[in-house]
User: Which sequence fits this backbone?
């Protein structure tokens, strides 16, 4: 939180002091104590708000994501209450992914864009750049002969009305923010600047999508070494009767038309007001005709249905031991018992055992479990839940039983042994393989678990937006509609009630027909609105604030109070608490970080005109506890202080202005 000056504190204390005087009836010492308590409470509240909304990252985490995604709840400032805060359509896990892979020449040999345009959680459009990328721009790419800056072609990111991106050739003067990344400009530029390159590639793609359809919004961005993923939603899509996004092609909302025609706003606003005025149930009519003593308060109670298709970690997870749990295809999980390999054991009639424990979280989603493959040398047993369920190649297991220790065979069989019953119980399952080895040997088995294809988990919840009104003694229920059936009218029950109804809902990969007694209750409560007379308070406040004078230790003022209908004036003085001392500014520091200047313009890239591409980025940081929060590679130029960079900024602006005047555009004819 920025620190505030002593002058600011003095003004605030004087203003709040007047309010405390008006509210206080007891001693002035109590008022001073209230100010001190208020200061402490204010500082604590400020720190809480700063932790919740004080930076770009926490603002995205606590506001943007909850309001644009159904997966993250919105919370009160103190974090004590969480609730759904999504404003509009559900977002997919990600709607855009850009993958890059550099080649030996330093150029990006592969760039693939994947898009989820209907926000159902599945990539439905993929585009791979047909050319290597030698340079990256804010709105496109540059492709040259790999490893050089010759025969360069320029391409813009573009998108059709549905958001499908591609590139199209253009002239160099249409490109902006370009820089070189291949070996003609330096070595290892891509891996050294992977995040910057991914952000610029992804930003160009998102920009073209938003230019084609202004409804695309971004709520989160995630990076790894070679991929950047964008999360968000498409606010321009229409919805079906259930409120879920429809499969219709995205159509920009009518509001976006005002971007190019702002003069149409007043006329549209007037038309909207007229339409609202003619509707007695509209918000306009409710507000314009409101009774000062009573208020109509609309609210609703909604039933929310969430559906999800569990993944591998929702069904079965490993707990420990030698083995693994992995996907083997749609609706398929392989549980590997033992260590995959060859001849990692040796001995003479030696018995080796390997345990592996798994935890079944949702056994009702498992359709079957089968030992589909076993590989061993020379004898093997598979135990599940303390029971031997299979052995090979026969029932012998020397030296515990009769039989030759050495079979001179590395067995690889498909037992297809059904073990479903062992995996249809909730909780921990202990498995074990035992192998009898002579010479060199190994042993492991695959248990293939098939999941039920219709394994959607359905959860129902109720969001009661009327709880606060219904608990108030001064509020009474006037109107109620349950699924459009009028159950309360003019404060009286109608004796009507809706029949149970069904809805077919689709969320992600789940489509289910769900029947409920009710879905939506729309209510209107009539609540008392007390009438207050603040005329006396206004008179007293004017006298106090107009006469208040304060210094560092005390405050004096003229007070007026009504007694038996008569105003009585008094002169008062009270001591002030010690005011906190703060700096006159928010301290900051100035640093620099070395970088490589590989900018590209029409005439070429920086390395072709400079003896060295070494350069510096100038950075500014807000100090934390008088410490400059530098990152690795940063050098402090100015440590924590009240920075004044006006002269430098003015010089840079002047240089840009003069450079603009020196620029000459010519078609060959002198001007």
Assistant:
């Amino acid at each position: 939180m920025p620190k505030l000056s002593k002058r600011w504190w003095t003004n605030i204390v004087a203003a709040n002091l007047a309010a405390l005087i008006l509210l206080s009836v007891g001693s002035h010492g109590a008022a001073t104590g209230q100010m001190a308590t208020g200061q402490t409470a204010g500082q604590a509240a400020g720190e809480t708000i700063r932790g919740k909304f004080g930076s770009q990252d926490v603002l995205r985490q606590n506001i943007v994501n909850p309001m644009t995604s159904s997966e993250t709840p919105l919370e009160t400032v103190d974090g004590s209450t969480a609730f759904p805060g999504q404003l509009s359509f559900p977002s997919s896990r990600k709607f855009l992914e850009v993958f890059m892979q550099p080649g030996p020449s330093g150029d990006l040999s592969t760039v693939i864009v994947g898009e989820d345009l209907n926000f159902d959680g599945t990539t439905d459009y993929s585009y791979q750049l047909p050319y290597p990328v030698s340079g990256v721009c804010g709105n496109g790419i540059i492709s040259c002969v790999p490893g050089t800056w010759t025969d360069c072609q320029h391409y813009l990111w573009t998108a059709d009305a549905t958001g499908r991106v591609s590139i199209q050739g253009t002239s160099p003067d249409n490109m902006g923010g370009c820089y070189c990344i291949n070996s003609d400009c330096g070595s290892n530029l891509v891996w050294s600047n992977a995040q910057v390159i991914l952000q610029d590639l992804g930003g160009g793609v998102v920009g073209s999508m938003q230019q084609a359809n202004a409804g695309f919004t971004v709520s989160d961005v995630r990076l790894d070494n070679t991929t950047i993923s964008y999360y968000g939603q498409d606010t321009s899509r229409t919805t079906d009767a259930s409120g879920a996004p429809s499969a219709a092609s995205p159509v920009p909302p009518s509001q976006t038309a005002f971007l190019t025609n702002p003069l149409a706003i007043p006329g549209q606003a007037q038309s909207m007001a007229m339409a609202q005025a003619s509707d007695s149930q509209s918000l306009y009519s409710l507000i314009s005709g409101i009774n000062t003593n009573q208020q109509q308060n609309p609210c609703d109670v909604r039933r929310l249905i969430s559906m999800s298709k569990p993944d591998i970690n929702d069904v079965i997870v490993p707990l420990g031991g030698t083995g693994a749990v992995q996907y083997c295809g749609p609706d398929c999980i392989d549980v590997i018992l033992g260590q995959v390999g060859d001849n990692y054991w040796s001995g003479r009639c030696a018995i080796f055992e390997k345990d592996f424990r798994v935890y079944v979280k949702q056994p009702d989603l498992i359709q079957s479990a089968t030992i589909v493959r076993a590989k061993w040398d020379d004898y093997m047993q598979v135990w599940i839940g303390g029971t031997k369920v299979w052995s090979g190649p026969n029932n012998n297991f020397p030296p515990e039983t009769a039989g030759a220790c050495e079979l001179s065979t590395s067995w690889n069989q498909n037992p297809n042994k059904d073990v479903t019953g062992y995996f249809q119980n909730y909780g921990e399952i202990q498995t074990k393989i035992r192998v009898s080895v002579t010479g060199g040997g190994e042993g492991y088995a695959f248990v293939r678990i098939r999941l039920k294809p219709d394994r959607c988990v359905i959860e129902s919840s109720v969001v009661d937006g009327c709880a606060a009104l219904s608990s108030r003694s001064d509020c009474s229920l006037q109107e109620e509609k349950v699924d459009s059936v009028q159950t309360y009218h003019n404060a009286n029950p109608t004796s009507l009630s809706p029949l149970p109804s069904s809805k077919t809902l689709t969320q992600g990969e789940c489509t289910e027909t769900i029947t409920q007694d009710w879905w939506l209750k729309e209510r209107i409560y009539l609540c008392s609105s007390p009438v207050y007379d603040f005329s006396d308070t206004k008179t007293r406040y004017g006298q106090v604030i107009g006469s208040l004078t304060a210094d560092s230790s005390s405050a004096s003022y003229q007070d007026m109070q009504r007694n038996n209908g008569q105003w009585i004036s008094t002169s008062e003085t009270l001591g002030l608490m010690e005011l906190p001392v703060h700096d006159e500014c928010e301290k900051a520091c100035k640093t620099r970080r070395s970088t490589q200047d590989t900018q590209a313009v029409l005439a070429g890239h920086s390395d072709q005109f400079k003896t060295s591409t070494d350069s510096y980025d100038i950075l500014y940081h807000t100090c934390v506890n008088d410490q400059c929060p530098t990152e690795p590679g940063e050098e402090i130029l100015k440590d924590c202080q009240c920075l004044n960079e006006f002269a430098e900024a003015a010089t840079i602006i002047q240089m840009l202005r003069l450079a603009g005047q020196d620029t000459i555009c010519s078609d060959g004819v002198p001007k």
